[in-house]
Write a structure and sequence with these properties.
This protein is mainly α. Helix content is 34%, strand content 8%.
């Protein structure tokens, strides 16, 4: 998720397209997505203007290409994330939203049956 498409994000996108692996999308956000407050749902990155999705069979190559841009992103959307690294949850869900989701999970799903695709169980066991 990006608030703006900086020159280096556009350059990385162009590089990926020229590489012969054109699995790349830029989706405009806003509209109805920005009608809901950041703290009103699990998706908190409602100030982003763009969702940038790059995919391919070489995850290490993609990580190398996109990691510098990711440091300037406003977060990520878990449905488009393939990595299962627990650290990614901090990029996907801001601390206050994660705390709220964990409280809800403890009340609604105390046995953590819904634990696939970025589980938000008790801290530390993602």
């Amino acid at each position: 998720m990006f608030r703006e498409l900086s020159a280096d994000v556009v350059t990385a996108a162009a590089h990926q397209m020229r590489s012969g692996r054109p699995s790349f999308q830029i989706r405009a956000l806003r509209g109805a997505a920005s009608d809901v407050g950041a703290d009103e749902s699990a998706f908190a990155h409602r100030d982003a203007q763009f969702s940038v999705v790059a995919f391919g069979s070489d995850a290490q190559r993609l990580d190398l290409m996109w990691e510098p841009r990711g440091r300037r992103s406003t977060g990520l959307y878990t449905s488009f994330e393939a990595s299962d690294r627990p650290a990614r949850i901090a990029e996907a869900i801001p601390p206050s939203t994660l705390a709220r989701l964990r409280r809800i999970t403890e009340r609604i799903d105390p046995r953590h049956l819904f634990r696939d695709n970025f589980p938000v169980g008790p801290g530390g066991d993602e």
